[in-house]
């Protein structure tokens, strides 16, 4: 009898990442086992979303026993992209997240938007200010910057 043990499943962003205006904490216990092989180590990389390019390697050997990892010295009011890989004997699971840091006054003042051309890949990354409240999607949809035939993603904190 052959038993197939899956790789670890990535966690929800809300259980993994907690950020303030200058740092983010990653809660490693958020990675669910659900019968999967135990995580041997994590690789943690990040970058500011509006400045695409090379990922900044935080560590390529974070052990689960650490329970949490801090990403210090982040810029206030900035959207960050996080790339984590959980390595186990069954293989690796990659997960990508987008999260904001708070401003110095403790709020999120912008929406990060990324346009993707299905045939050509990423076409632009832009930071647009959005009005306060829960009307972000209708505000974003009314912008004249939309290009027909492209997919748009809006990320916001809840």
UniProtKB/TrEMBL annotation:
Keywords: Cell adhesion, Disulfide bond, Immunoglobulin domain, Membrane, Signal, Transmembrane, Transmembrane helix
InterPro entries: DSCAM/DSCAML_C (IPR056754), FN3_dom (IPR003961), FN3_sf (IPR036116), Ig-like_fold (IPR013783)
PROSITE patterns: FN3
Organism domain of life: Eukaryota
Membrane-topology descriptor: Single-pass membrane protein
A Pfam family the protein falls into: FN3_DSCAM-DSCAML_C
Location in the cell: Membrane
Entry-linked SUPFAM superfamilies: Fibronectin type III
Segments passing through the bilayer: none
Chief location bin: membrane
Fibronectin type-III domain sequence ranges: 10-106
Record's protein name: Fibronectin type-III domain-containing protein
């Amino acid at each position: 009898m052959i038993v197939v043990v899956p790789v670890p499943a990535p966690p929800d962003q809300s259980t993994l990442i907690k950020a303030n205006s200058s740092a983010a904490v990653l809660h490693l216990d958020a990675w669910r086992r659900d019968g999967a092989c135990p995580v041997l180590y994590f690789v943690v990389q990040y970058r500011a979303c509006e400045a695409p390019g090379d990922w900044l390697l935080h560590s390529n050997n974070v052990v689960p026993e650490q329970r949490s990892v801090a990403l210090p010295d982040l810029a206030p009011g900035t959207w960050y992209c996080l790339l984590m890989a959980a390595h186990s004997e069954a293989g690796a699971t990659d997960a990508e997240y987008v999260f904001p840091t708070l401003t110095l006054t403790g709020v999120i003042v912008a929406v990060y938007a990324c346009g993707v051309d299905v045939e050509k890949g990423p076409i632009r990354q832009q930071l647009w200010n959005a009005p306060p409240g829960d009307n972000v999607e209708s505000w974003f949809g009314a912008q004249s910057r939309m290009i027909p035939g492209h997919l748009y993603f809006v990320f916001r904190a809840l």
